[in-house]
Amino acid sequence: MNKKSKFLDITKIVVIEILLFFLLLIFFKIESVLILFVAVALVVLVFIAFRIYKKQVQSILNLFALNRPVVLIILLILLILYPVLSPIIIPRGGTYWILILIQTGIYIITALGLNFQLGSAGMMNLATAAFYGVGAYTAGILSLKLGWPALITIPVAGIVAALAGLILFIPIYKTKGHYLALVTLAFGLMLVLAADNIEFLGGPQGLKNIPSINLFGYSFLSSLGGLHFYTNYYYFVLLLVIITVVIFHRLFNSWVGLTASYIRDDEPAAKGCGINSNFQKLLIFMFGNFFMGVAGAIYAHMIGFISPPNFQFTQSLLIVSIVIIGGMDNILGLIMGAFILVVLPEKLRVITEYRIMLYGILLIATLIFRPRGLLPFGPRKYESLLGFRKGGRSDVE
Amino acid sequence: MSSFAIFTQIIFNGLMLGIQYSLIAVGFSLFFGVLDVINFAHGDIFMLGAYASLVLINLFGVLSASGSSYIFFLIMILLLSAIIVGTLGVSFERIVVKPVSKGPPLMSLVATLGLGIAIREAVRLFYPRGSETKRFPEILSKLLGNKSLEFGGVILRYDNLLIIGIGMVIILLLAFFINRTKMGVTIRAVAQDGEAAEMMGVNKNLIVDVTFFLGSALAAIAGLMNGIYYNSIIFGMGGMAGVIGFSAAVMGGLGNVYGAIIGGFLFAMTESLSAAFIPKGSEFMDVVAFGVVILFLVFRPHGILGEKTYERV
Predict the structure, then answer these.
(1) CB distance B287–A190 less than 8 Å?
(2) Which residue segment(s) compose the domain that B166 sits in?
(3) Which residue of B has its CA nearest to A265?
């Protein structure tokens, strides 16, 4: 490929990404219901156009796949620029959308933890929000009662959430499928009921005035270059999301991910191949929980107030549906799912009343028409695992 | 009160709740048998049952009736709400549950959870002032008065006794239906091996419909009982009921109807015993009950009456 066409490709990518980014910003800006419906109609039209011009779309997708580093760098730049641009383009509610994006980020971290359990290893965990709550309460208690700094409470919260998963080690050994779903569901309900009734944890009132994050003397409550203080959290969460995505991407392409998939697809066969599936499952469960705990701790520090209703079963359901709607064992799909299920309902606030019902119907419709999620995961590609990269042949697929 | 009286009272409360839980759990077990699916919307079907009977009571103006026509109205409400909710259950099955049951099991679980949310929200939005707690009329105490049976310090309300009696009759009828009728045998055959049953000429789709009708109707009756027992209903009451019903079905052994009934009583007894004997028990009773469920799954994963399954390579 000569230099000129390479340059042309990169320009194309830049233009497309910036265009998409501004479309998203405009979508945030729209307030009137009518225009919102027009926007939805446009999206549907675009999808139909995709169906008709398959070749062109495919060529664009190929372009993105071939120049992945460029795509990611531009995406990163746009994401970093977002908090600066948002208040300018959306004078009313720009900071609000930053908050929504932070929440999306927190959900992505949680859902990635769940995806490792549910998507990779096939272990249903309906106590996701409860483990997230364990992290939040740990961070709250440690910083309120002991005055520990956030830099320590966040990882400790993750570890405590992982240890809370360890309590379930016998059920994890012995049950699977629907039964494991029930065990985790019951465990989650137990944790929420317990938090509601233990006075040390604040009971139904929860914990108030949890201090904000203070990183090496820099308080996250101070404004960053004249921007709203949410911007601090935005960058912090962005960094953590990137780290988490990288970790899980590497894990997916490692023997750990492969072992997990083997256990998910055929556990007796995996055992037959000498995999200690019980131990692996426990590790996977605890590792996933760690990230839920971390996400919970960030939430607790940012909002400053937590109470049991924040961590109820409906929250778990939201996180599970992020993983399932996006497509299991697929990080890109999961991020898409998080955007659909967290950002879109915010937009639907104009029809507040019917929001939750629409969410239920959306869930059903997705699963009826695309039972494997929006971006179902195809067969694994073993290139990176077997050590050969681009251009190498992959015989095993 | 003597310890005997306290104990009897606890057992009585347990029976009262146990009837309701059993009727819900039977649905979970039946559906799992014929479609291999956990229908998490079943708790909300139970809630629909309570609302349907409330609507019927208001519609008929039952409370103004008297004498033998009053009894007739009560029976009509029981039957009509069961039929209405049963039909709704079949339509939900046709639209949602059966299509998703062909996919991976966890997907169908999430889809039915979504269905439950949709039903709950529909009631909240479209029932007049649906987000408030609704008062359920005390239709039985009008029939029996506010009297109660007293012996040795035990106080048993007559209307509650009647509910237990009706529940027992329904459970016996169910057992008869499952065991002795041709349809019951067919349902069991489909539950055991759907494909083989189809090869023997069983119309599986019809059986699935019948099963969902039966399960939903039983849940509706449980909803009516719940309304009479607590005198109040709310749109969100199905969430916890669904989880409890599922737990009871699992404790008894998924797919086994008798197991579900036993599981329902077991769960209710655990709740009422822990409410009585554990300090701060009424707050922690569900914590204890779910702890028992988890222990059950650990030590008897296939439930009390469930068949033990082995995985073959």
Answers:
(1) yes
(2) 20-236
(3) B104
Chain B positions touching A179 (Cβ under 8 A) are 250, 297, 301
Taking only Cα atoms into account, the Rg of chain B, rounded to an integer number of angstroms, comes to: 20
Query: In this predicted model, what pLDDT tens digit does every residue of A37-77 receive, in sequence order?
Result: 777 787 788 778 877 877 777 777 777 777 777 788 888 88
Q: Which of B100, B116, B239 sits opposite A371 (nearest CB)?
A: B100
Percent of chain A with pLDDT over 70: 90
Q: Assess A195–B contact: CB distance below 8 Å, yes or no.
A: no
Residue B246 included in any domain: no
| Alpha carbons A145 and A141: distance in angstroms, whole number | 6
DSSP code string of A329-390: T-HHHHHHHHIIIIIHHHHGGGGGGGHHHHHHHHHHHHHHH-TT-SS---SPP-HHHHT--T
Task: Name the residue of chain A whose CA is nearest to B131's CA.
Answer: A353
Query: Does residue A386 belong to the interface with chain B, where contact is any CB pair within 8 Å?
Result: no
* Mean of pLDDT values over B105-117: 85
Chain A contact set for B102 (CB, 8 A)? 371
Task: State the CB neighbour count (10 A cutoff) for residue B295.
Answer: 12
pTM: 0.85
Structure tokens at B48: 């629909």
Question: Which pair of tokens denotes residue A166?
Answer: 């360890």
Number of structural domains (chain B) is 1
Complex ipTM more than 0.85, yes or no: no
For the cut 50, the answer to whether the pLDDT of residue A17 exceeds it is: yes
Nearest to B301 among A179, A196, A357 (CB): A179
Check pLDDT > 50 for residue A388: no
Q: Average pLDDT for residues A301-329, to the nearest whole number? A: 85
All domains of chain A, ordered by start, with CATH?
A: 1-92 (no CATH), 93-386 (1.10.3470)
Q: Which of A170, A179, A360 comes nearest B114 by C-beta?
A: A360
